[in-house]
Write a structure and sequence with these properties.
Low-confidence stretches: 218-222
Helix content: over 70%
Mean pLDDT: 82
Number of helices: 9
Radius of gyration: 20 Å
Order of helices and strands: HHHHHHHHH
Structural class: mainly alpha
Oligomer: single chain
Largest sheet: none
Number of strands: 0
Shape: globular
Strand content: under 5%
Length: 222
Amino acid sequence: LPRQRQHRLNLRLIKQAYNQVFNTLKSWRRTPDLFQFLLGYYLISDGVVTMINFTAIFVAVQFGLGMGEILQLVVIFNLVTIPATIVVGLLHQKWAGMTLLKVILILWVVLLSIIVFGTHPFTPVIIAVGQGLVIGSTQSICRGLYAQMVPPEKTAEMFGFHALVSKVSAVGGPLMFGLISSATGNQRLAMMSVLVFILAGGWVLFQIPSLSSVSNQLETNN
């Protein structure tokens, strides 16, 4: 009997959680800028997730690296990511988040150009360093801007909604990479899809008028 009650409780909690998600979706007209931000954020996240999931396979195939060499690149990536994310967080306290995001998007274009066209044996190291500079920084900036946009009374609702929906939306980038790679047999071409997601997400974010004012507010205060 206690197990049955626990089972019913679990089902009720799951139902309540999904009902809350659908209720949040139905209320998008009240905060359209917030949902537009999430769309741009998820597009960028698709690119980030694709890079995280497929870079090891890419460098192994394109440059013939073994497991030991790939692990060394992972170490380099983490050594760069941690201080880069901290520095961007500090800069976000002084500079407008949208300004930082534009700089990061430029770095994304440079990095993906190196990934697609680079053939030098040292290219995998440059890729690891470049990813360390942009991946954590991109997520840090987007999360910071999202936190600034969410009304205080909706914090729990919107962050809960984001936690669930972001997991579902993250399949788009890897799926696109896999389809292009399978259809063409060219992983470099498949990596170009990452640039499409990153630039499309950035374009969506830059179309939000209220985001620029929110982004500049902290800079003005400082």
